[in-house]
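To: structure desk
From: M.T.
Subject: fold request, one chain
Message: Could you run this one when you get a chance? Sequence is below, nothing fancy, just the single chain.
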Amino acid sequence: MTAYLLHEGTSILCPHGGTGVVAPAAVPVRVGGRPVLLADATVTIAGCAFTVAGAPQPCVRVRWQAPAARVTVNGIAVLLSTSVGLCVNGPGAPQGTAQLSGYQTRVSGQ
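Reply: Done. Structure tokens follow.
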């Protein structure tokens, strides 16, 4: 299945309303004037309000799964609109899937 390449302008939200912030990377390939996101992209979550039994357990980063199988940049798979971003807390426990929006819709890959 073909999907769209994600770029640094993609909006990433955790399921609890936190906002994903992409760490800038020196990626030589751009779409829509912005660097594409690679499978090793560092995305931190700010403003997550998730609690368990009244104790804060915020999402703090995104762990990516299902990157492109056929499109790479410098040997690293690109992220697609169908890639799965697991939002995890400090110890690394998954707390839900990131919601993606605002990605470009001209360049696709598999």
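Reply (cont.): The chain has a mean pLDDT of 94. Let me know if you need anything else for the meeting.
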